[in-house]
Amino acid sequence: MANNIKKNLTRVQQEYKELAQSVEPPRPILKNFIRAFIAGGAICLVGQAIQEMFVHWGGFDEKKAGDPTVAVMILLSVILTSMGVYDKFAQWAGAGSAVPVTGFANSMASAAIEHQSEGMVLGVGGKMFKLAGPVIVFGTVAAFAVGIVHLLIKGGGGS
Amino acid sequence: MIFLWAFLVGGAICVFGQFCFDVLKLTPAHTMTLLVVLGAIVDGIGWYDPLIEFAGAGASVPITSFGNALVHGALQELKSNGWIGIITGIFEVTSAGISAAIIFSFLAALFVKPKG
Questions:
Q1: Which residues 65-104 of A have a C-beta within 8 angstroms of B?
Q2: Are the C-beta atoms of A65 and A55 separated by less than 8 Å?
């Protein structure tokens, strides 16, 4: 696809693009990987700790404890986002803060807060799913496809 | 021991996300979408549950588990209600996550002023 875009440019634009690419600082890939690993691992560690708490003191079993854990993680993420802490952390952590569910909640909360000025319905309600929307849409379509495949291979039980 | 594996597996999934950012040059939205679809497919072949058994929150906290949960709901209802379950069951399991995210984000938008 990059080649197609390149062909449509004039020569000057192409030269500029090459120049811009040559002076663009290389991304510190290894450093970013290490940061993502530590931050993502730490968030999962917190999740595991919350889950253990629900299992030991909340009376949930191992399987059911996942739901309240996710809800608590999301609440924490929204609180940290509201205080402006999560976005600072995200700059350091990169994908380490974006990939866990907390990043999903962060994208929704920050979009909701940011678009307040456009009104409750069009701003908060409409823009909340700017990043979460694609995730839900493609997740749902993928789940539907997987469901169909299972139906075709194994056949549905019940009725 | 489960804490160690949660850290390692969760970290590894995030490094894969960072790999998509830096090496494949995908946008965050594309990366998250890819991870969710991967999670759905991995659960479709039945490998996600063993991973959660093994790594706990390391597998259930990253966004891949969202895809896993969508598939879980669909397959559960498919078993109990027949073909219509694929449609009715998709959001069965993820309800907690999506509802919590919507409700808390909305409340945040009511009470928090945007910064910067």
A1: 66-71, 73-75, 78, 81-82, 84, 94-96, 98-104
A2: yes
